[in-house]
Design goal:
Radius of gyration: 18 Å
CATH class: Alpha Beta
Strand order of the largest sheet: 1-2-3-4-6-8-11
Number of domains: 1
Shape: globular
Order of helices and strands: EEEHEEHHEEHEEHHEHEHHHH
CATH topology: 2-enoyl-CoA Hydratase, Chain A, domain 1
Largest sheet: 7 strands, mixed
Number of helices: 11
Structural class: alpha/beta
Helix content: 40-55%
CATH superfamily: 2-enoyl-CoA Hydratase, Chain A, domain 1
Number of strands: 11
Distance between the termini: 45 Å
């Protein structure tokens, strides 16, 4: 048995990020259940750095990302959004964060698995869609509330979601501000399987162990070949999402909807 190790980031104001490795399997956890693992500006870049560092460690053969508490990730902190004034600064910050995280997943030399342990809302759903393979707890959901706030989807959702479930279904769930249950995610091919809540991480670890036993470099090669089939550049999509989001964010009704929701939290 290989010796395990753990890495805990220095204390930041944003979401907690902790990683540990045992027997070649890395687990990265979002550890701020008191805020539903919400992301402040810059948190995605921090998560990207963790994914990059852990996945390139020579002892790591597979990587699992999960949350702690009742939520996987509730997306962007509404209080952080409500305090942002300059739409161009917002577009730049969102685009930089998302590009960094998507690039880290895309460049991982090992297979990446997301274990969605609870609600994954907004950017949280987008993050879940970045990994190679998704497993979900039976009670978990992918939630896309953007339209209800007068916003557009970001974090690569407008390319990742329709690419995997079709444009019709994607428009339906995104335009209604709807959500997808774990059962629906399995049915539509977004998730490989759903498991009882208390078994999710064990099942993710079992899958990671099986995949880790395959020849080194295989999964990265498969990912790269599949990525070539996308007709639209992910980088261009993320930039377009960020700019459209900044325009929507400057709308008066959007600001009112965000402020009203933030006041309830």
């Amino acid at each position: 048995m290989q010796k395990s190790w753990a890495m805990v980031e220095p204390q930041f104001a944003g979401v907690g990020i902790v990683s540990d490795v045992s027997d070649g399997i890395a687990i990265i956890r979002l550890t701020s259940p008191e805020t539903a693992n919400a992301f402040d500006p810059g948190d995605m870049t921090r998560l990207a750095a963790t994914v990059d560092a852990v996945s390139h460690d020579p002892r790591v053969r597979a990587l699992i990302l999960t949350g702690s508490g009742r939520h996987f990730c509730s997306g962007a902190s509404l209080n952080g959004l409500a305090g942002t004034k300059d739409r161009h600064d917002l577009a730049k910050a969102v685009g930089n964060d998302v590009r960094a995280l998507q690039a880290a997943f895309d460049a991982s030399p090992v297979v990446t698995i997301v274990a969605v342990n609870g609600a994954a809302a907004g950017a949280g759903a987008g993050i879940a869609l970045m990994a190679d393979i998704m497993l979900m707890a039976a009670r978990s959901r992918l939630m896309f509330p953007f339209a209800q706030l007068g916003l557009v989807p970001d974090t690569g959702i407008t390319i990742n979601l329709p690419h995997r479930i079709g444009a019709g279904r994607a428009k339906d769930v995104l335009m209604t501000g709807g959500s997808l249950s774990a059962e629906q995610c399995v049915e539509y091919g977004l998730a490989s399987a759903s498991h009882e809540d208390d078994m999710l991480l064990d099942e993710a670890r079992n899958l990671a162990i099986r995949l880790a036993g395959m020849p080194d470099g295989t999964h990265a090669a498969i990912r790269n070949l599949i990525s070539r089939t996308a007709s639209v550049s992910m980088k261009a999509t993320i930039e377009a999402e960020a700019e459209a989001q900044a325009i929507r964010f400057s709308a008066r009704e959007t600001q009112q909807a965000i402020n009203a929701l933030a006041a309830k939290i």
